[in-house]
Amino acid sequence: QVQLVESGGGLVQAGGSLRLSCAASGRSFSRSGMGWFRQAPGKEREFVASIRWDGINTRYADSVKGRFTISRDNAKNIIYLQMMSLRPEDTAVYYCAATSAGDSVFSYWGQGTQVTVSS
Q1: Do 76 and 4 contact (CB within 8 A), yes or no?
Q2: What CA–CA distance (Å, rounded) separates 60 from 111?
Q3: Could you tell me if 47 and 26 are in contact, meaning their C-beta atoms sit under 8 angstroms apart?
Q4: Rounded to an integer, what distance in angstroms lies between the CA atom of residue 7 and that of residue 9?
Q5: How far is Cα 8 from Cα 82, in angstroms, rounded to an integer?
Q6: Can you tell me whether residue 88 is helix, strand or coil?
Q7: What is the mean pLDDT of each run of 10 residues along the chain (119 residues)?
Q8: Residues sharing a CB contact under 8 Å with residue 20, sequence separation 6 or more, in sequence order
């Protein structure tokens, strides 16, 4: 059974940092694209960042560029989201997602981890 489990969320003051982790199990995702999305209360889920299977290509939402960094460790089947200079508007549930190998659609999703940034 494929599982993506996020961790590392919590409460932080504005300007602070957090690192989210997403551990994948049930199959290897070494050939899958992986990403982070978030959903704030009353808003739709939005794209945050993604990383290609080889870790070379990354993409970011404009709102997090220069503040967030996505990375992956294929040997451990884990991806990370380092978040710095956090803002209250970054408050959301953060979800990890993965594609099937060779696909571009995110088919696998975690349950999410709450990030709350206080002003």
Answers
A1: no
A2: 21
A3: no
A4: 6
A5: 10
A6: helix
A7: 94 98 90 95 97 94 98 94 98 96 90 97
A8: 6, 7, 8, 9, 36, 80, 81, 83, 94, 96, 113, 115
What pLDDT is stored for residue 11 in this prediction? Answer: 98
Going by C-alpha positions, the residue among 26, 97, 35 that lies closest to residue 61 is 35
Strand, coil or helix: what is 61?
coil
Which pLDDT does position 38 carry in this prediction? 98
pLDDT of 100: 86
Q: Pairing between strand 3-7 and 58-60?
A: unpaired
Tell me which residue of 95, 83, 119, 113 sits closest to 8, measured CA to CA. Answer: 113
* Euclidean distance between CA atoms 89 and 82, whole angstroms: 16
Which amino acid is it at 15? Answer: G
In 3D, which of 96, 77, 90, 76 has the Cα closest to residue 34? 96
Q: 51 near 118, Cβ under 8 Å?
A: no
pLDDT at 30: 85
